[in-house]
Write a structure and sequence with these properties.
The complex is a heterotrimer. By secondary structure, chain A is mainly alpha-helical. Chain A is built from 3 helices and no strands. In chain A, helix 2 packs antiparallel against helix 3. In chain C, helix 3 packs parallel to helix 14, helix 13 crosses helix 18 and helix 14 crosses helix 18. The chains are: A mainly alpha, B mainly alpha, C mainly alpha.
Chain lengths: 103, 178, 633
């Protein structure tokens, strides 16, 4: 059984790495959000694997997954709100051009 | 058990493959769809790990979310089809380094840690859903309620941010002038 | 691993490999198909003594997916793999000039795998999945040249037609699972009562869609816009056969009324499609109409209560029709099209291909000792002994007559006349594929005895000699008529209508398009109503707001103003006391914060990626620090 747990954990880790790469390397706001989604997906895989193989008797694990899913949805919603505002103001959501946010 | 290992590995590979595909195509629509498939594969991994409710929830939520994302992609990109073949990335070397070291560190922890005893049997699906409901309205009630309020706040915030700026200014002017 | 997966896995793996590697398409696809053929032959050898092999796979809760290899399923798997292999060999030559080959070979392999899964599926869920997959693959393959408008149109037409009819299968499957309590096909077939009649009729609807029975026959003719190997595979052993296979497998479920409906639909189709074929001006479309007509004959046999005859005819037809299509593909390359106006005299220009075509055509018409003679004889015998013989037997005989007539007409048009023949690239591959399928088309009749013995199903031997004589008479009569009399004279007033494909009540537009449009229009109407309601609500709100506001201004506003003025006065009083002592402290604090802010400002570049990088680095450093503390204590 430990194999399955390790498989899931390694998958989660790689998803996390891919997400980090995406969030750091993309120029487009929406693409950055995609990277963040992948990071969170990696976290989700780990959480479910921990719940299933280590503590199936405690449902706080599943609750945690629900909360992370909520966070994903919220990140999306607020992110798109910002993207719309940005697009209205500047006509683009390219983050290279966001130097005018400099304080 | 072999079947479980096989399906977890297969869906995991699919999730990773599509996850990589997100950043390898220059077509935005394709990358949004690749993300959708990746998240669906993650949902399928949940199913393979006998977590039916969360798996189905993940698949349904991500399907909606990513379809919306596709629409936004088409709206906001200067080149949604990726026909220009522009490179849409920057600080590549740092990003690759960061991604690799993050994944490497997490894998190292996963492989080196002592995870303790493994439970072979999972509770059945109906039992899980019931227990999750009780957890949600019992011990985790506060978290659940907080999440609800946060969702409401985020909805209001997102709408407020997205409303065109000039309408706010107009109303403000009127109120002040009176 | 059980032997049951052997026919399915190789083509599936080949499809994945072709789509991932994007090269070596022909080799991989051929390897997959050949392995599948070997696997299905081995499977047939294992189950030939009548036992079944079952493989349970995890599926839905309470409904595991199962693959069941009964003798009939194994036999069908062999047929599918044989046709698939030789069609692929032919395709190597046929598709030599094309681009996008990985897509072609990948989808062809997937198609084979899906069809094998359909044949071997032992439960309804798996069958539905395979059914959907072959629908998808046929859509992709018919639309292979999607740049051509007629191919794209034909693909979506085929998809729409079969999908509409598939609704029947879905409802039937839900009913069967609901009444039997299990998704296993063999168990659910024992259900009876009202549900079984309704389910049987719905299954008939699904089979009508896939097997192109009247009035849903139109898509099959248009599907000829795809590449010819695709047509050969589609018509002989895969997509179109799926409908007939479904009915053959579910035959025990069908009640007498349903059986009669099946037979009647089959009979009408065999005659109508035969008439259409007689009027066609294009070789491939003629063969397509002939497919619909032959599947009509199979439905007659199922309706007569002798599924064995339908199965035999299905097997013979698979070999014959794929051979005919492969020959047509060769002609197409030689003359740049398949219209009869271009194909005149091709028979004399390419005699070896024409010989294969003619042999297969004679086999289909039912001339002894070719395979079609035995299978058609079984169908006619079945029709003669069935309870509805008064209806079914004349229809079956007319169908046979028409088969002979249109095939003889095709042979005549291909033999007479003249035209410019181009050399054909890849002709050797195509010849191998063609003759490898002509061989079973000729000799399959020898195998029918052992097959009957193996399957242990009721056959219709009773009125043997009468059926043989009648069938032979009809076939020879049809051939003579078709060779001697031109089509317009033979059909008389029906001819123009037949040229339009006997479209009943406007064809697709009336049966699928118009209802869809009506639903859309209804939705639009609802939306207009809703919109008006929302607007009215908004207007009401505005009016109310105006009312409230006028109230406000008159009374509330002056009061607020007075309070404000009083506050201001008090503030002025307090301010004068404050300024001297506290202000100094506050100013110092402000100066400190400002200088700190100036330093932080350098970090705040507004460029998200840089800030993300900074936060990622800081997080990493923090984690490392945490880790070190953990190590030490």
């Amino acid at each position: 059984m430990i194999t399955v747990l390790l498989l899931a954990l390694v998958t989660g880790a790689i998803l996390f790495g891919v997400g980090v790469y995406g969030a750091l390397s993309q120029t487009n706001l929406v693409m950055i959000m995609m990277g963040v989604e992948l990071i969170l997906a990696g976290a989700l895989v780990n959480l479910v694997a921990f719940w299933r193989f280590l503590h199936p008797e405690s449902y706080s694990g599943q609750m945690f997954v629900l909360v992370v899913m909520t966070v994903m949805a919220l990140e999306m919603a607020v992110g798109f709100g910002v993207a719309i505002a940005r697009f209205r103001a500047k006509g683009s959501v390219e983050m290279e051009e966001a130097g005018d946010l400099k304080g | 058990m072999y079947a479980q290992a096989f399906f977890v590995a297969a869906f995991g590979l699919a999730a990773i493959g599509f996850g990589v595909a997100v950043f390898r195509t220059s077509s935005m629509v394709r990358s949004a769809l690749a993300l959708l498939f990746s998240q669906t594969a993650v949902g399928c991994m949940f199913l393979a790990m006998q977590t039916e409710f969360l798996g189905v929830l993940q698949i349904m939520m991500m399907a909606t979310e990513m379809s919306i994302m596709t629409i936004f992609m088409v709206m906001f990109m200067m080149d949604p089809g990726g026909l220009g073949g522009m490179d849409m990335s920057h600080q590549k070397r740092f990003s690759i380094g960061a991604g690799l070291s993050a994944a490497g560190a997490a894998i190292a922890v996963a492989l080196l840690a002592d995870w303790g005893p493994i439970t072979a049997e999972a509770p059945d699906a109906a039992m899980q859903t019931r227990e999750l409901g009780i957890e949600m309205l019992g011990r985790s009630m506060l978290i659940f309620e907080t999440a609800a309020v946060t969702i409401l706040t985020a909805m209001i915030a997102a709408t407020a941010v997205a409303i065109p700026a000039h309408t706010l200014a107009d109303n403000g002017n009127k109120e002040v002038s009176e | 691993m059980s032997a049951v997966v052997l026919p399915i896995l190789p083509p599936l793996l080949a499809a994945m490999a072709v789509l991932i590697l994007r090269r070596a398409g022909p080799v991989l696809a051929l390897a997959g198909a050949t392995l599948s053929l070997g696997g299905s032959l081995w499977l047939l050898a294992r189950v030939a003594d009548g036992h079944t092999e079952t493989l349970l796979l995890p599926g839905l809760p309470e409904m595991p997916l199962r693959l069941v290899a009964a003798p009939m399923a194994a036999l069908l798997a062999v047929a599918v793999a044989t046709v698939g292999t030789f069609v692929l060999i032919h395709a190597v030559g046929y598709m030599r000039q094309e681009s996008h080959l990985p897509r072609f070979y990948g989808v062809m392999s997937l198609f084979l795998a899906a069809m094998q899964a359909l044949v071997l599926a032992g439960d309804w869920v798996g069958l539905l999945a395979a059914w959907e997959l072959i629908g998808l693959c046929s859509y992709l393959l018919i639309g292979f040249w999607f740049q051509r408008p007629e191919a794209a149109d034909a693909a979506s037409r085929a998809f729409l037609y079969t999908r509409s009819a598939d609704l029947g299968l879905y409802i039937a499957v839900f009913m069967l699972i609901g009444s039997a309590g299990t998704s296993e096909i063999a168990a659910s077939l024992e259900a009876d009562g009202g549900a079984s009649t309704a389910a049987g009729l719905l299954l008939l609807l699904a089979a009508m869609g896939k097997s192109a029975q009247v009035p849903l026959q139109d898509w099959l003719m248009r599907a000829m816009a795809g590449p010819t190997p695709v047509s050969a595979l589609l018509h002989s052993a895969t997509l179109v056969a799926a409908g007939a296979i479904l009915l053959i497998r579910t035959a025990p479920l069908l009640t007498p009324e349903t059986l009669f409906a099946v037979g009647l639909v089959g009979g009408l189709t065999t005659v109508a499609a035969g008439v259409i074929a007689l009027a066609e001006r294009d070789l491939k479309r003629l063969l397509a109409a002939s497919t619909a007509s032959q599947y009509g004959l199979m439905l007659i046999a199922v309706g007569a209560g002798v599924p064995l005859a339908a199965l035999l005819h299905l097997l013979a037809h698979a070999a014959i029709k794929s051979a005919l299509f492969l020959a047509a593909g060769d002609f197409q390359h030689a003359r740049g099209g398949t219209g009869f106006d271009r194909l005149g005299g091709i028979g004399r220009a390419r005699p070896r291909v024409f010989a294969g075509f003619a042999l297969s055509a004679l086999a289909l018409a039912g001339i002894p000792p070719l395979s079609g003679f035995f299978s058609k004889d079984a169908v006619i015998a079945a029709a003669l002994i069935s309870p509805g013989a008064a209806w079914l037997a004349p229809l079956a005989l007319t169908g046979t007559l028409l088969t002979g007539a249109y095939l003889a007409r095709a042979l005549r048009l291909l033999w007479q006349g003249s035209g410019n023949t181009r050399p054909v690239a890849g002709s050797a591959w195509m010849m191998v594929g063609l003759w490898a399928l002509v061989a079973p088309a000729v000799a399959l009749g020898l195998a029918f005895g052992p097959i009957e013995a193996m399957l242990d199903l009721a056959s219709a031997e009773a009125e043997g000699t009468g059926a043989v004589l009648l069938g032979l008479l009809a076939a020879v009569g049809g051939l003579t008529l078709g060779w001697l009399v031109p089509a317009p004279r033979l059909l008389g007033p029906v001819h123009p209508w037949a040229c339009r494909g006997l479209a009943i009540g406007g064809g697709l537009t009336a049966w699928v398009g118009r209802p869809a449009m009506a639903i859309a229009r209804g939705c639009e109407y609802m939306e207009v109503l809703l919109h008006a309601a929302v607007l009215n609500m908004g207007r009401g709100g505005l009016a109310m707001a105006r009312l409230v506001r006028s109230n406000d201004e008159r009374r509330l506003y002056p009061a607020v103003l007075h309070i404000g003025q009083a506050n201001l006065a008090m503030a002025r009083l307090v301010k004068s006391g404050d300024e001297r002592r506290i202000d100094g402290l506050i100013f110092a604090l402000v100066a400190g914060v400002r200088s700190l802010g100036n330093r932080a400002r350098a970090l705040q570049s507004g460029l998200i990626h840089r800030e993300l990088a900074i936060s990622a680095t800081v997080t990493a450093v923090g984690l490392v620090a945490l880790f070190i503390t953990l190590l030490r204590f």
